[in-house]
Fold:
Amino acid sequence: MNKTLLPIRLVFVALCAAAGWLTSATILAGEHYRGLAIVVGFCIGALVVLVDVMLKGFSLRGLSAITFGIAVGLLIAHMIGTSPLLELGTLDPSTVYLVRLALFVICPYLSAVIALRGKDEFNLVIPYVRFVPHEVDVPLVVVDTSVLIDGRIARVCESGFLSAALVIPRFVLNELRLVADSSDPHKQARGRRGLEVLNDLRRIKNLDIRITESEVSKREDVDAKLVFLAQSMRAKLLTTDYNLAKMAEFHGVPWLNLNALAKSLRPELMIGERLDVELVKPGKEDGQAVGFIEDGSMVVVGGGRPYIGRRVQAEIVTVLPTAGGKMIFARQVGEVE
Structure:
């Protein structure tokens, strides 16, 4: 039981017992039943607290949905009960009363159940009711801490290629804050970059970001909770953590990897194609110089050593696939002005 709510619940039960005593005291004949009245008040208070405990986890969304459902059910019951179908001249008054009573019990119940089972999200906001549609067709993507620290997610979302709604659990935000508050300068810089990326995501127009109020008791449970959350929401998991991705794959959760996306977007280079590259250091062989293109692939340019520090035009001779990408061998054909 929640330690914060325990004193409030005890006071409430005591007040119910006191209310039973006061009720018996105000009634002239109730002085003989004061003990029973106190017990009845105590039992009523305990019953209410028990219902409160059983409703643990019942969210404001559920309360809004059931309130809307009951209101619609009462409206339907009233419309049917006052319709010409139940005119007093054709039916017995007791029958009409029983039919109306059944309508006012059954209709609100069915409407409340349908509202709770539905896919609409009801937010009860005082002093008005706001309805936020939760579109079933919108795919969901649960975001991991590593993705926010990586930073590329903001550019991907800004380009419009990721049309899914981003789901960021509260425990991911807490973990990101702990990394940003770390005494290790390297971790602190990574955490602050993640917070900056989060702010960049919020500034992107038409980007659907949803913060889920979900917590974990231990930091070791973060990966398991991410997989469970993605599985329960039927969402994909966006991460750059290889171990987390394999855990998600084991549980049948589809996952997205920014590294795989970046690798798939690398341009296909063909032999004989020319490209511009800045030479940054000498190669292993005589006359060679090394440069890098935008996707990170290394380009070894023959005859480019005199042009180190400058940008040259090179013609591709050979393309070798490697574990880290591609290694391109080219020959220098001119200097870029």
